[in-house]
């Protein structure tokens, strides 16, 4: 009951109600702890996630590099096996690849007899760990591993064989059929008896250069390329092969040479023998050469002259004209005889290339210590997981402890600020709050002290303003009342002169009220501007014209001048009001014979409007107060020496509403210059 009575009463501060305790869930300390815990958890989780992602990315990158190195090693050794029998030069190649990749590379036979090992010393001994039980790959130029071959360089697959098919379809004959065979797994660098001698290479190269010149004459970009067997063929941009073949006769470049015909005949013999062994009547087969040098199979329908019309494939650098196929379309794919012929040709090619290539070998690619690189992703062990969790818990506990200590020290000065604020609310004298430490709390205490001092100054200014407003309104009201009472008592006659005097006093009263209304609108942020493009020079001319009569009556020379074309976006009415207030003050404080000049110009991308006079000037001590409300240099506040004291305050508010600034410079006895600095847009 005492609390309620005290709350209703107007007792002393000692009788003020006891402040209720802040709930724990709303206290600053609790919120700081909750935020710190949340931030800590998120930071730890984010750090762990980033670390895991970074580590996983590095591991994936390393694994990608390992796979790329594996493919490069495999392709290099595959090329060696395809071009040299009995693994000649394998030891040197293995050591070079090991130096480039930092890996241990070993080649063995199917029986695990070492062919070459980068870890072997000069005597052939291999110190250290043994080779893994499973090989990384089998290097066989006649049975390429498609997985590793997919990652090799493009320049190792030029010419022929890669991705081609051997079969009885039109792919080899220029007809309309399709291939029936499987994808050719013979390495394109395994050419064997198809390797051309120097004289045939020179002849084909000369023919190719002639066709290149012909193609360039027809506007086709072409170049000659030499395949693994030494056969030269043409490469053209886009779909220009047919143009070159027809116009330049480049199709003759694809005719088999003597060496190639001999090798093709051998494949035909081996394929026919294969089919006889399998109890199938041999199919009449035709063999030709692709532009890269690969043998191409097609089925021949029977005796008769070959077709002379080049097929579309022949026009694109494929086989030369050949007899029409006996099996075409989807029937070829379903014909078991065609499939058997395809398999026999493949076997014939392998049998023919066998003496020219190295035998299959096991390839081992390991780390220098002999261990195989991990094929699994990165996984934390149980010990590492426990270590990571323990570290995260320790960081979390440390963060909570430090935050609690900091929050306790933080709330102590805040309580002092709260007490000082409550004393200010009750109207008691407020002592400055001490700022014992540097940082945000110290800044808060300093800001509070500044606010208290500013509040005190505003209160004093408010009291002075009320007094000034009362004084400014009392004068015209007293004059109006006095003249009206005199007229009522018959002391003065109600003539036009009296009415004019009363109208002047009413207009003065209206002017003061309007100024106060403008200041109130500016303070409330409701001062509305109607912006439009305007020329500052034109506005200055209009203001000068409006005040010209008053200046002439006072004997003051008033003029306006412009430098350039100072255009800006502003409210012309409000801007004329601001310039007019400055011109009115300047004319009022300039003696007869003096001058007032309004200058407008563009300075550094902004519009500057200067109102300069040669009047009495303003003392240096008074300059900081010229824009204060109801401030006048003449403390007597007579109408002869000044207006209401609101004009310059209105100027400042209008200029600030336009996003500009106003400054004053003065020398007593020499004059004063007011400068409006306004943005162009």
Radius of gyration: 52 Å
Mean pLDDT equals: 75
Q: Spatial order of the strands in the main sheet?
A: 10-12-13-15-14
Strand content: 5-15%
Count of DSSP strands: 15
Query: Which parts are unreliable, with pLDDT below 50 for 5 consecutive residues or more?
Result: 1-19, 153-183, 301-333, 374-378
How many angstroms does the end-to-end distance come to?
64 Å
Helix count equals 17
Q: How helical, in percent, are the residues?
A: 40-55%
The geometry reads as: elongated
How would a crystallographer describe the biggest sheet? 5 strands, mixed
Summing up helix and strand content along with how strands pair, one would put the structural category as: alpha+beta
What is the strand and helix layout of this fold?
Elements: H1 2-8, H2 28-83, H3 90-101, E1 104-108, E2 114-117, E3 137-139, H4 146-149, H5 170-173, H6 198-217, E4 222-226, E5 232-236, H7 241-248, H8 258-277, E6 285-289, E7 295-299, H9 312-315, H10 329-334, H11 336-353, E8 361-366, H12 382-425, H13 440-488, H14 496-524, E9 532-535, H15 536-554, E10 557-563, E11 567-570, H16 572-588, E12 595-603, E13 606-613, H17 647-657, E14 661-667, E15 671-679
Helix pairs in contact: 2-3, 2-12, 8-11, 12-13, 13-14, 14-17, 15-16, 16-17
Characterization of this structure:
It is a single chain. With 681 residues, the chain is an alpha+beta fold. It has 17 helices and 15 strands. It has helices spanning 2-8, 28-83, 90-101, 146-149, 170-173, 198-217, 241-248, 258-277, 312-315, 329-334, 336-353, 382-425, 440-488, 496-524, 536-554, 572-588, 647-657, and strands at residues 104-108, 114-117, 137-139, 222-226, 232-236, 285-289, 295-299, 361-366, 532-535, 557-563, 567-570, 595-603, 606-613, 661-667, 671-679. The strands form five sheets. It has a five-stranded mixed beta sheet. A four-stranded antiparallel beta sheet has the order 2-1-8-3, with helices on one face. A hairpin with a 5-residue loop joins strand 6 (285-289) and strand 7 (295-299). It is elongated.
